[in-house]
Here is the input.
Amino acid sequence: MAELSKNDEPQDATPNVSEVDVVEARSEDEAVTRIEAPVERGEPILQVRDLVKHFPLTQGILFKRQIGAVKAVDGVSFDLHQGETLGIVGESGCGKSTVAKLLMNLERATAGEIFYKGQDITKLSGRALKAVRRNIQMVFQDPYTSLNPRMTVGDIIGEPFDIHPEVAPKGDRRRRVQELLDVVGLNPEYINRYPHQFSGGQRQRIGIARGLALNPEIIICDEPVSALDVSVQAQVINLMERLQDEFNLSYIFIAHDLSIVRHISDRVGVMYLGRIAEIGTDEQIYDHPTHPYTQALLSAVPVPDPDAREQRERIILTGDVPSPANPPSGCRFRTRCWKAQDKCSQEVPLLAVPERFKTSDAPAAHESACHFAEEKDVVHAA
Amino acid sequence: MTTIEEVVPVPSPGEGGADGTPLLEVRDLHVEFHTREGLVRAVNGVNYSVDAGETLAVLGESGSGKSVTAQAVMGILDMPPAQIPQGEILFRGHDMLKMTGEERRAIRGRRIAMIFQDALSSLNPVLSVGYQLGEMFRVHQGLSKKDAKVKAIELMEKVKIPAAAARVNDYPHQFSGGMRQRIMIAMALALEPDLIIADEPTTALDVTVQAQVMDLLAELQREYNMGLILITHDLGVVADVADKIAVMYAGRIVERAPVHELYKRPAHPYTRGLLDSIPRLDQKGQELYAIKGLPPNLLRVPTGCAFNPRCPKAQDVCRTEVPELLPVTEQDGTELVGRASACHFWKETIHG
Amino acid sequence: MPDVTKTVPEAAAEEAAVAAAGGPLPETKPEKSRSLWGDAWADLRRSWIFIVSSVLILILMLITFFPGWFTGVDPVLGDLSKHYLQKPRLGDVGAPDWLGYDQQGRSVYARVIYGTRASVAVGFGTTIVVTLIGGLVGMIAGYFGGAMDAVLSRLTDVFFGIPFLLGTMVVLNSFTNRTAWVVIGALGFFGWTQIARVMRGAVITTKQADYVQAAKALGASTPRIMFRHILPNTLAPVIVVATISLGVYIGAEATLSFLGLGLNGVSWGNDISDGGAQIRVAQWIMLYPSIMLSITVLAFIMLGEAVRNALDPKMR
Here is the structure.
């Protein structure tokens, strides 16, 4: 347990996440004005720094005492640029869904900052927080539980207008809702129907329409297609890509399906046990991965090509993901890594461009949290 | 899961196999459900067969009838509401639908075993894993408690559970998802069945664990020369392990083909659409091809070919006539072994 | 087919059109808007248990509000010339002597009719009080959790631990003029725990639903989340419990009256109590109020059962 204290230190901010231009708003008005101000395409819109979320483990009913913590997210930093899609992949329990909840302010961060246009949203309240909420929306995984079964589709999509009445005047709402239904490819006449009258794919479209209602700038998608049938997944993915162009949206796309993430993302971050293992453009991650976990993950994905099955090299990891309540010291992946050495159990590898690639501008020169990072193309290997 | 009957005489392994009778053959199977909204025809005349050592993948989306077919084979459908109005399920040439309950139970678990998607709910939470594995041997082979435990440890080692001897007394919730799925496989294997039906065995697992479990399953299948029916919606998993594939849509098989053939030259527009609509890991790709529309509601299956409202090739004939599953040939008329398509325009689809 | 806006690219428009048509099905008759309540209602109408119980309850309601329609006799008017030696004349349906007379020469039939009001008033009144108190406590405990939940749940346990009838008897014993309000208050004071527990459980389950998270993410206020998202989705089990307990409270009122601690005035329980003393000479004095009581309690329990079947989400 002695190593744990060292392990608890969050990862250092890496040079490649850009400097945060912190805005100290003197008044609520100023804060709101800043939040409403547009951001140039390609500029950072959301900057996450050293985000930590520990869920306390308690014992006892009346007098609770903490006996430990589940380190769901343990020092995550990344930038989201305006107009791009940042994919976050990882296996169950890696903390990717907790990141989504933290970004949505549905959970309180234990430590760390989330800067939206330079303001730390974990510290905002009142009108400023409401303005942020309007601009960051979410699409949920399960279309069967994310819509209130007792409300009509019109009420579900119109609810954002009830909460933020300044966006649409009362008389205009019905028309706006019908427009939104149309935009996501549903019949506007369905406005009075209830969620259970729709199939999974249609429900997910309703969820997307609700997310679009307030003209947000960022949409956080937590496994938006994993509950859908294969033939319907493609429809929803295409819809989301179309909407991104049409409404100038930035996406954070969280999923476990690596193929879909590659398809939709401009940049991809790979998470393992609460930390980012590797982050870079889709080409850097998929074609030039340098972190062993990314390589193993990619090589394990079944490829829909029977001819490849004899030729592909498979890295089959042994064992299971350790419990986030008691993660390994040093590098969290070391217990399953074939490259692990003593150094890996002692030193936490920083998420940075590995020393050997520092000077090169090859695709392998991207941030990877491994002491022994080395490029290995596992996807195309024949 | 753990109620196991005493040994009853069953068709011996040698019987039937010699003259080319398949291990399992499903003939013209129909399954219906009576719901309060009406009659649901979940399976509509399905034919398939598996031989020893062979892997048949049944591919389909939700509502295609792939799982219901398997449950009918296994004899674990709740009847009512389900009904089997028509069809035969031949195990080594014997129709299981005509057998008595006792004869069927003797086959279930001993000759045909099943692996489910959700391992946690398939294992009894209040009994230790070793006890549940050992029960197989105690009941079927009359082993003593001690010997059964030794066998259970052997099985756990077989499915590569680390420290098997130390963990034999652990309970299901103490194992991770991947390990529980291994325990399920161990249970299915305990009596060395001739056929394993795996219903989405890796869907609930993470990719890295999924690969481990599929590898294990394939390895054990080779070792015991078992038949395997793999039910899944994942085209990637199918490509990795299947020998032949049956694609199901709205309760019917719409295409049948050996695995390499299917991916190279699909002969049904639905199969083609599915293959085109999955994003690739090894390239970025443009806009995804999307099969338009939604899977059919089984209460109101479209007339003619069930796929016609979503099909880019649909003509008037598709809206009126149900296409039969017919053999597919090369352009010059030579037969393509093991291939069939239920499309009026299969020629255009495969050759066009 | 929808009128697809011009901004949508054509390929997407086609996709949209198909999806919008509710899938590939050639829908002959457009599916109407069907709420879950509507579905439950459609189920209820087909259930014979529901029909029988609601017809019974309807009749009870008519008797409660318009007792004059059923008998022209004053239930408290005693005519000693017709005391309990006058047996029922079962052929005279609806006449004052149909069900005989009691020891003070009052028409048993008229008393049964007028006694309905007391039972139904106490039943409904108590159910409303119990649902309001229990619903509120359960909602607050379930929604806010933490210390609030700990305090309210323990409070619920304390009240749950008090024997229901004993508690009400102790309270009612201290009142000399026991009006319907007093009885309702006493029953409600000790009876709210079951609803509170049901409500708390339902709220905790619903609170975790994604649509509640979605509303929070939109910045919805706490009352909005409580009343628009959580309450409608927790109502079903509460309605079931409330309907069934309505019958139970009617029974409880009769029990209290039987023990001499119920309402002052005409009520089935009082008559059953009085009739008990005469059971060897004039069984009808006790028999007919008892039959009415049983039918009433049964009707509400059957209604609750039917509602449970219609609302049970596992059935759909």
